[in-house]
Amino acid sequence: MSTVLPLAEPVRRARADAAPADLERLGARLRHQVGRAIADFGMIEDGDKVMVCLSGGKDSYTLLDILLQLQRKAPVKFELVAVNLDQKQPDFPEHVLPQYLESVGVPYKILEQDTYSVVTRVVPEGKTMCSLCSRLRRGALYTYAAEQGFTKIALGHHRDDLVATFFLNLFFHAKLSGMPPKLLSDDGRHVVIRPLAYVREDDIVEYAAARQFPIIPCNLCGSQENLQRKQVKRMMDAWERETPGRLEIISRALGDIRPSQLSDPKLFDFLGLGHGGARTAAPVWLDDAASDDPAAQAG
Strands, DSSP E only, in 77-197? Predict the structure, then answer.
């Protein structure tokens, strides 16, 4: 079954001094989109204990804020705990997140693991650090989630992240795959959810500015200009300037996949098509033809 993503409303630019009515309308839209994603993908159920991964960036602040609002009105009971991994980056303001979380009354845990030193020691100068940093961070968070019995792990990836990941895999890894709104971790122990899957980044920027979240910039991966993701982001920004709404169309397409109109025989029975039944292998004579093909031999 295809999931058609909701069409977003026109973008309104970020303003820290947004009127209360504007902020309420934006908040209502975000609550609707997050609630829709939770319902479409069965992200949160009665009795869930959800670990909300908080980095200190605009996305994770918005995620936590909207989930707290939904929690107060939800017909089901679920627990939210904010978890931050202090990776020991130089000059990291350790007081900011605890102060904020205490001010909004959220249970939280600050994990400490010096992944910064590992990444800077292992990754050669000039190379991107995101892959190793992400693996180390994910390992620490998954380990804590297992120890504490969390049933869901909530991440702050938004609509634009999902689209960008699709193009990263297409351009750099020759595969049609992306960042799903809900997934089971490779070891089968954790269900990861992305409740902001329908929310575009422009709205998060505006909401975070209006709510005046104490943003903590990343001085590790965020400072690298040669990232493939940044190349894709520049391309997406140019598309949106030239043809507003294009990213929304692409986002909706990711929820409307047609395997029979692609080229993957693992997803669609092309061999059995038109023969009244499934075939398990190509005809033998094609093996002989391929052996005479110089291109096939070279490949």
Answer: 79-86, 108-112, 152-154, 182-184, 191-193
Name the stretches of the chain with pLDDT < 70. Answer: 1-18, 119-132, 218-226, 275-299
Residue position matching structure tokens 């089971």: 184
| Nearest C-alpha neighbor of 68 from the set 154, 145, 144 | 154
Euclidean distance between CA atoms 48 and 79, whole angstroms = 6
Give me 2's structure tokens: 């295809």
Closest-CA residue to 71 (of 104, 99, 96, 116): 104
User: Is the pTM above the cut of 0.85?
Assistant: no
CA distance 122 to 139: 17
pLDDT single digits (tens) 76-92: 999 999 999 988 777 78
Q: From CA 272, how far away is CA 290, in angstroms rounded?
A: 21
Determine the number of helices (DSSP H) and then strands (DSSP E) in the chain.
Answer: 11, 6
Q: In whole angstroms, what separates CA 205 from the centre of its chain?
A: 16
Give the integer Cα–Cα distance in Å for 67 and 63: 6
Contact (CB, 8 A) for 157 and 34? no
The model's pLDDT over 186-223, given as tens digits with 9 standing for 90+, comes to: 888 999 999 999 999 999 999 999 999 999 986 655 54
